[in-house]
Fold this sequence. Notes:
The structure holds two protein chains of two kinds. Chain A is an all-alpha fold.
Amino acid sequence: MALPTSYIPRDSIIHKLDPRIKLVIIVCITLLVFITTKFLPIGILFFSLLVLWKISGIPLKRILSYLRVLVFLFLLLIIMQAVFYPGEKVLLEPLIPEAVPLVGGKGNITLEGVLFGLLLCLRVLTLMCIFPVLLATTTLEKITLAMVKLGLPYRVAFTATTAINQLPVLQSEAGVIMDAQKLRGFMVFETGRFLSKIKALHVLVVPLVMGSMRRASMMGIAMDSRAFGAFKKRTFVDEINIERRDRIALAVFSLFTGVILFFSF
Amino acid sequence: MREIIKIDSISYSYPEGVQALKDVSLSVNEGEFLGIIGQNGAGKSTLLKCIVGLLKPQKGRILLKGEDLDDFPVSRVALKVGFVLQNPDLQLFSMTVRDEIAFGLSNMGFEREQMETRIKEALEMVGLSGREEEYPLTLSRGERARVVIASVIAMNPDIMILDEPTSGQDYSGSIQIMEIADKLCRDGRTILVVSHNMSLIAEYCRRVVVFRSGKIFLDGSVGEVFSRPDELIKTGIKPPQITRLGNALRDVLPSAETILRVEQLGDLIIEKVNRRR
Lengths: 265, 277
């Protein structure tokens, strides 16, 4: 199954970059998305990320699957902002009639509100597009190594990358559990309404969490039996070095950041 | 005999592009005990998943008792087809054995008393009577597998599909599971079982289908299939030892060629020796 977190073996320029540089860039882009509150810079960020996706070999179609998951959140965001965002240009008259005490006459749907809602959606979508770039172009071992070289204790780095590593496992386990439930005539996940699906989630989450805990303890044993933490200093099979292309990438990215910030304020 | 499963030239490719089934056709009659063998990745599990509708073949169609599968969700097909997946642990999601078995029955809308009866019967069938209140995941591996089987048996399906039910089981555990399947078959149900254990297949199945790279490579009675070791070896399968011994003896004991059980060969040899005397 193609998973949003899976590594895509390619030979692109992004694959070749030092993972430390990539980590720094990824963190900076994330900060930029939080700082920026205007359409243009967010739009530039979003399209730049799509370009990075293309170069990294991530199928652009995957955006659609994100949209499918997020559509409810987006609708909610747009509606909430449309109603509650203070704005001038009224598109629709108050939803709540004047006669209702306290809240009567409120709830104008304003152009500004709708636009702000759309902007929020684009920001969420942009945020979601960031990490796949790192994960598709860097093996987890290299990400761990990069974090260690950036000064994080190995245990912390290992925990972080293992968590990412376990996502696909969890996803496929969730699939099997749902299959097993369908096979016993449980219809909700197939034909139920959205709300009943949400309600039914506990029958999925409980076994999933139980299974994870069991797997975690097994993994601990497996790691201990391969001498995890026996010595303070450990070596790595991969080697990472900052090269010329990394410096160039960093320079280009600094320039890019400047442009984004210029348009943001 | 009535045809219960009709698979009409189905093909299935996984989203990553691996074609797991290539134009496979198969017909299974009511009451058959069918073994499905082949190397890992040959398409066995994919076929089984297509039969219950967990995977939708891109080409071809599957009829269960004459009804096209496409029209029903898995949870409806499950009323007719019981499917035991490979890993029992992911199929156990309740806090007690009783709840585990009741899950399917609740989905089917049974009344409480009926449920109790069915739970009792199912547990009896798999040899776990009186274990209702235990936590499924603390049971032994063999018992966990049997709880899953019981939870499917309780739903009383016409067809029972077991995907590698004996993997990770010790010998007696494997025998126990195959005995349960055998009993279900004698009660009139149709059994499909995938296994890598050739002696169990030889002992319990009547018919065997051999998969090789997404296609059916051989299909016939157990005796016929296992008497073709030269072809089987191409799929990485060796017939059970007793069959190979019988095959090696075919020049002196012609009827030993399709032997499947130790007792059969024993009888043949004794008969031959007695005749010589």
